[in-house]
């Protein structure tokens, strides 16, 4: 009898010890989903939410993870990238986290993913209907560095008082001769809210405009969620006589020859040797698999790791 | 010709609250009027209240009772009971005042001090300065001083700036409080000429002149203020 | 002389529990008029200024303002958005401590240009030109346009604050001890500048000060406050030369002559 009880109690103990699907309890998911729905209804508006304690510290993507955990389902296919790459520490560990707590399929291919969680980059390949892009956001408030008071920035958003945002750009031009902000470049959403697109390079800003995907932004430490539903108008702020421009690299990817993509600089040796390669690793691999190659890259088969 | 200024039964005393409410009567029941194109002089011993009367007419001193009726803007205004805005308008367009001492404002040049009443009435600064320059020239103020703020001028120099400022407009009533006190004979004569010009323009002048020669040269009528002196009661 | 006043204040009062901040203040202000509110510490003059400029909500009374389109609006019936817009465009507020009225960590040019950007100006070149012009008007060299106010002296900061306030051509400016804490020669320069700007721009202003000389220089009308009440009001030169109320006489006689 004791043995049977022991088996049953250890089974019970095991079932108590397993995680709920995607780690968060259902009530939390409901709370986050409500925040997401509100965010979608008011594009660009920062919705406060009760950010939970996650098994990674603040600053490691807890906001993005909570958003993903609230929307992911057993049939989803998850891709996680960090600075465009699937194979960095963060991307690998978050992907592993969701494999364990949600048992979902994972992929590195942008085209195959239904949910893409990203830190600081947008995939080069245009996203399709039904895809969700989840951004990890450190500081959601675009005005924070100019106006430290939360009470004041909330009013500014509420009353559409964005003169200060242009002050920041003005200062850039006064100091550097041009708008020197190269990442986290502020945008105006649907002509109403000014939003921080997260620290993605300004090169990626145009990709946010009228994307077919749903874009969700989660800031865990700051406890804010905001969203861009598909086909939302997203315009980068600028001056009439200093219009918004994206960076150009003037050269193609050294591995796959892609042009007009965001490139990372990789130091090759101690003598200053370097190469510029696609920041989006999946994009690069896919192109090489299709037979494209740049001056340094051989066709697919050769690992870049 | 309608009378430009009528003073009717004005009385004033100072109540010195800092001295336990001691009452210092100034004048009582003063009544007189002045005519356009003529200069009336307030006469009487020192301290009898002549300067105070001028200040009451200008609205600088309050009045306890009585009226000071001025023809302003085609209607009659009682300066004694008018609201501040009205008094300011009367000063801007009807009553001019040459005070005894120039209150020197820092950083404003003598030329601009003299030109100010015209600028305030909407005249261009350049044209106002030209008229100021002519007056300062007539008053023999050295041109080197025109661009300097009058704070460091001598009493006589300051007074000439004051006179220019007072005479520059075409106010129909002009109050003069000892305008020649610090001036030499040459400039006293200039002031006499200026007064005569104003008379010819139909301006009504009311002044205090201690200098007998000047007084005799300009006065058409003398109003003896000692007749209005209030009984002084000991504190 | 315009026909209608710009500001109408009626029975304005502010209480802090049993304590009176200010009580039963009534007056009107016309365009282009400068009114000085004079009193010592605790007189209620700053409370009054804050109630007038909507920085403090009064306990009783009414403040009405005539908008640019001629319509009279009760300030405390307006929405916060409307009030804030008013503060940024039609009004100015010059703080005693310029750091309170400036963004210390952005350049002088950005400080002056902010209000323009806030009302939709989007041409960098034009913003900069306007800022340069205004710096000139407050006697700050154009070469300082990219410097931060942190590097400015107190007098320069105060002049910058004035430029920042005047760039949108406000019709009414509130000033709280604008020359407080400045050296005497700096004060003189600032006062002259204010006088000139007020005259040139036809500004109406309400200036709170404890300094009677400032009141005499800047204002044509004056109110003397004590313990939250207006105890005497009238033409500035009349109040200062022929003070009636005991407290006014005390104030005037307390001023040291140089």
Detailed description of the structure:
The complex is a heterotrimer of chains A (305), B (235) and C (258). Chain A is an alpha/beta fold. Chain A is built from 8 helices and 12 strands. In chain A, helix 2 (26-41) crosses helix 3 (62-71). Chain B is 36% helix and 26% strand. Chain B is built from 8 helices and 9 strands. In chain B, strand 1 and strand 2 (22-34) form a beta hairpin. Chain B is globular. Chain C has 258 residues and is of the alpha/beta class. In chain C, 39% of the residues lie in helices and 25% in strands. In chain C, the strands form 2 sheets. In chain C, strands 6-7-8-3-9-10 form a 6-stranded mixed beta sheet, with helices on both faces. In chain C, strands 2-1-4-5 form a 4-stranded antiparallel beta sheet, covered by helices on one side. In chain C, strand 9 and strand 10 (229-235) form a beta hairpin. In chain C, helix 4 (108-118) packs parallel to helix 6 (154-166) and helix 6 (154-166) packs parallel to helix 7 (184-201). The radius of gyration of chain C is 18 Å and the shape is globular. In chain C, 48% of the residues are buried. Chains in contact: A-C, B-C. The interface between B and C is medium-sized, with 22 and 25 residues.
Instruction: Specify the number of helices of chain A.
Output: 8
Q: How many strand segments of chain A?
A: 12
* Low-pLDDT runs of chain A: 300-305
Rg of Cα set of chain A:
22 Å
Average of per-residue pLDDT values of chain B = 91
The strand count of chain B comes to 9
SSE run of chain B:
EEEHEEHEHHHHEHEHE
Number of helices of chain B: 8
Order of helices and strands of chain A: HHEHEHEEEHHEEHEEEEEH
Q: What is the share of helical residues of chain A?
A: 25-40%
Cα separation of the termini of chain B: 46 Å
Structural class of chain B: alpha/beta
- Residue share in helices of chain B? 25-40%
Classification by helices and strands of chain A: alpha/beta
Report the mean per-residue pLDDT of chain A as an integer.
Answer: 90
Quickly describe the structure.
With 305 residues, chain A is an alpha/beta fold. Chain A has helices at residues 2-17, 26-41, 62-71, 89-102, 150-158, 163-176, 205-208, 281-289, and strands at 47-48, 77-82, 105-106, 115-119, 132-136, 187-189, 193-195, 214-219, 224-228, 234-236, 263-267, 274-278.
């Amino acid at each position: 009898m004791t043995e049977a009880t022991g088996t049953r109690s250890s089974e019970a103990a095991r079932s108590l010890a397993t995680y709920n699907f995607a780690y968060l309890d259902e009530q939390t998911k409901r709370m986050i989903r409500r925040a997401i729905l509100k965010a979608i209804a008011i594009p660009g508006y920062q919705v406060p939410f009760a950010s939970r304690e996650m098994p990674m510290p603040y600053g490691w993507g807890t906001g993005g993870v909570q958003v993903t955990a609230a929307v992911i389902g057993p049939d989803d296919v998850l891709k996680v990238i960090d600075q465009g790459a699937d194979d960095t520490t963060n991307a690998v560990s978050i992907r592993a986290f969701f494999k364990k707590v949600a048992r979902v399929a994972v992929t590195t291919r942008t085209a195959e993913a239904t949910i893409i969680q990203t830190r600081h980059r947008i995939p080069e390949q245009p996203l399709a209907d039904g895809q969700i892009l989840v951004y990890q956001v450190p500081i959601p408030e675009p005005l924070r560095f100019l106006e430290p008071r939360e009470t004041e920035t909330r009013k500014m958003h509420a009353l559409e008082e964005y003169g200060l945002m242009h002050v920041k750009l003005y200062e850039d031009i006064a100091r550097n001769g041009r708008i020197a902000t190269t990442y986290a470049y502020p945008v105006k959403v649907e002509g109403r809210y000014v939003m921080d697109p997260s620290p993605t390079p300004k090169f990626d800003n145009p990709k946010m405009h009228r994307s077919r995907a749903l874009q969700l932004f989660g800031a865990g430490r700051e406890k804010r969620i905001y969203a861009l539903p598909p086909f939302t108008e997203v315009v980068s702020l600028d001056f009439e006589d200093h219009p918004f421009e994206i960076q150009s690299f003037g050269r193609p990817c050294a591995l796959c020859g892609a042009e007009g993509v965001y490139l990372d600089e990789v130091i090759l040796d101690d003598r200053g040797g370097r190469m510029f390669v696609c920041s989006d690793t999946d994009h690069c691999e896919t192109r090489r698999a299709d037979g494209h190659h740049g001056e340094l890259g051989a066709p697919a088969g050769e690992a870049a790791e | 010709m309608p009378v430009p200024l009528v003073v009717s039964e004005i009385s004033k005393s100072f109540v010195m609250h800092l001295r336990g409410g001691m009452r210092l009567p100034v004048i009582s029941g003063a009544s007189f009027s002045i005519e356009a194109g003529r200069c009336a002089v307030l006469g009487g011993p020192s301290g009898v209240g002549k300067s105070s009367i001028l200040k009451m007419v200008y609205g600088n001193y309050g009045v306890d009772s009585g009226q000071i009726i001025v023809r302003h803007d085609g209607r009659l205004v009682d300066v004694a009971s008018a609201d501040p805005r009205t008094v300011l308008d009367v000063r801007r367009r009807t009553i001019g005042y040459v005070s005894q001492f120039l209150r020197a404002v820092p950083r404003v040049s003598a030329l601009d001090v003299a030109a100010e009443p015209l600028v305030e009435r909407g005249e261009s600064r350049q044209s106002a300065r030209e008229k100021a320059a002519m007056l300062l020239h007539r008053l023999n103020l050295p041109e080197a001083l025109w661009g300097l703020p009058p704070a460091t001028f001598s009493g006589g120099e300051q007074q000439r700036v004051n006179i220019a400022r007072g005479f520059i407009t075409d106010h129909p009533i002009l109050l003069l409080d000892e305008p020649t006190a610090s001036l030499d004979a040459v400039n006293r004569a200039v002031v006499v000429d200026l007064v005569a010009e104003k008379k010819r323009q139909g301006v009504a002048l009311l002044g205090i002149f201690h200098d007998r020669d000047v007084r005799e040269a300009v006065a058409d009528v003398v109003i003896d203020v000692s007749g209005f002196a209030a009984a002084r009661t000991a504190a | 002389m315009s026909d209608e006043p710009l500001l109408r204040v009626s029975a304005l009062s502010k209480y802090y529990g049993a304590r009176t901040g200010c009580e039963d203040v009534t007056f009107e202000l016309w365009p282009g008029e400068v009114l000085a509110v004079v009193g010592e510490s605790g007189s209620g003059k700053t409370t009054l200024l804050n109630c007038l400029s909507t920085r403090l909500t009064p306990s009783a009374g009414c403040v009405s303002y005539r908008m640019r389109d001629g319509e009279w609006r009760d300030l405390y019936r307006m929405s916060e958005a409307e009030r804030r817009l008013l503060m940024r465009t039609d009004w100015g507020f010059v703080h005693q401590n310029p750091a309170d009225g400036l963004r210390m960590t952005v350049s002088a040019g950005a400080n002056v240009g902010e209000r323009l950007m806030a009302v939709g100006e989007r041409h960098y070149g034009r913003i900069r030109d306007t800022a340069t012009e205004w710096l000139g008007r407050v006697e700050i060299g154009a070469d300082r346009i990219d410097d931060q106010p942190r590097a400015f002296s107190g007098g320069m900061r105060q002049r910058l604050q004035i430029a920042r306030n005047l760039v949108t051509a406000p019709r009414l400016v509130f000033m709280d001890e604008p020359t407080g804490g400045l050296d005497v020669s700096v004060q003189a320069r600032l006062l002259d500048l204010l006088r000139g700007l007020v005259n040139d721009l036809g500004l109406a202003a309400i200036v709170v000060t404890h300094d009677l000389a400032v009141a005499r220089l800047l204002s044509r009308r004056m109110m003397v406050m004590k313990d939250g009440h207006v105890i005497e009001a009238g033409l500035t030169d009349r109040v200062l030369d022929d003070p009636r109320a005991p407290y006014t006489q005390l104030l005037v006689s307390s001023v040291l002559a140089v």
